[in-house]
Amino acid sequence: MSDLRQELIDASIAHFQGCIKKHKVNIEVMLNNAVGVAEHPDLMDSIDKELGLIAEYDDKLSVLYKYFSNGIQ
Question: Tens digits of per-residue pLDDT, 10-57?
Fold first, then answer.
């Protein structure tokens, strides 16, 4: 059963890290690519939303590490 526990923890970590990378790329595109800017007329609002999502997944990752993975990062 502990193998399943670790697999679920590992999958959650990978998921949260992947989501953070996705939203970081979205911000980088908006900051560095004119095409990305054209798709978001309210650029500041779009960046704010992406940052909020990064913060959400970063918080979840921190909680997972703190309470469920014996402090191993």
Answer: 999 999 999 999 999 999 988 887 665 566 578 889 999 999 999 999
For the residues 53-69, what does the mean pLDDT come to? 96
DSSP letter string over 15-73?
A: HHHHHHHHHHHHHHHHHH-HHHHHT-SSHHHHHHHHHHHHHHHHHHHHHHHHHHSTT--
For residue 38, give its domain range: 2-68
Distances, alpha carbon 5 to alpha carbons 1, 34, 58, in Å: 6, 44, 21
Number of domains in the chain: 1
Q: Assess if residue 59 is contained within a domain.
A: yes
In a domain, 6, yes or no: yes
Whether 73 is covered by a domain: the verdict is no
